[in-house]
Amino acid sequence: SSETRAMWDEMRVCYDLHRHTSTPLSVAEVFAMATIGGATALGLASETGSLEPGKAADYIVVSLDLSGDASEDLFGDGAVSPERLLHTLLLQAQADRVRKVVVAGKALKG
What we know:
This protein is about 45% helix and about 15% strand.
């Protein structure tokens, strides 16, 4: 990967590459690899990597475009599943759509 690539790009590449294997990864598995998996690899899983009591509240808020097909993909039958929401986020997320960044419970942006 290139140093100019965003984490979202890396996640999309991972998802796309694994879709064409005999054991494709779900979107939830890709998000887990990028969050708690990364924290685990760094020995920080007890401190960060998931939103749980006692851990640092590190998260971002992303603005999604829910017009047209994106809205139908997400809300197709009226119910939003976590998998659909994560899939929409994976497809649309870009650095310029990040509206808020929170690290250790403190807002750094937004």
